[in-house]
Fold this sequence. Notes:
Order of helices and strands: HEEHHHEEEEHEHEEHEEHEHEHHHH
Strand order of the largest sheet: 1-5-10
Strand content: 5-15%
Amino acid sequence: MIIQGTLNVTDFALGCTELDRFVYVSTAYANSHLHHLNPQQICRISEQIYPLQDGTGSESDAATEWMYLQKYGTTPEYQSTPFPWAYAYAKHLTERLITDRFGETIESKSPSSSSTDSTTSKADRRLLIIRPSIVGPAQVFPEPGWQVATSAPVTGLAAFFIVSPARRLTLYSEFRNPNQEALIDEVPVDTVVNRIIIHTHMNTSGVVHANRELTMCYRFTDYHNAAKKLRRMPWDPKIMWVGDINSPKISEIGKLYAVAGCTFEFEQQKTSNVWSTMHSREKITFPLFSNMDSDMSRALNLSGRSTAFESLFSKYFKKHKWPAWCLPIVYRS
């Protein structure tokens, strides 16, 4: 669904003689498999395309990989690469396929090498790939805290912590102290939109990350503690961690939020370069960074997400056939 739909639109766009720009919204976690190279360290991901290797150890051909996927429902590359979920792999392969379609020059860096090797294909600066991290509530526009509840993953995770009757939840992390070392990169949705608008206007090409600054990210434990403050049940689910991503002990919520116990540093040099050229009035209208003046020493407060929480609780209650009157018993509004 992710790959074929995007290729349909790509082929249609390339048939337009007046095509000026093509913007594809991917995900910063399209390369989350790189975490497993150094699982106990912060994983740094650059604004570039990372190739995969086929079964022979050579660089994989995206078109061949796609043909194999359609025929067999999986690929050797996916089977041999530790992507946390199929979604990340689908976005990763889509980036490579549309890059090939546009004939973009790829600066591809092998994860095990610091050298950069460029292909000789003709560059096409019409293609812009935006990689948002975890999209969260708005910082300013259309109003502070605005969000679509079902499209804000961290809000969903916090809602689960609040309402779940579980006494123990098992998640994946290879950090020694995941509660403190795992950072949640939740970027305001309007920050993402501003980066799309500005980079499109500035004719930026290639890959651009849309994420929160690492120093502005809250820890996993900050979100967990903030959720517990809104929980009325007389017990809190204990968070357990395992170092094997394939462990059968991992809870279903842990499989869904497979990167919750990791920390990624997404390069954003292209945005920093553009920011330095913007006029002060433009910076006020289109802020490209999140909460630049916020006080990170303050405890994270999730009470502003009450509308989104109640929407999610309504769906949760219907799924589990709980009566609506139970909500005040479990949730401190």
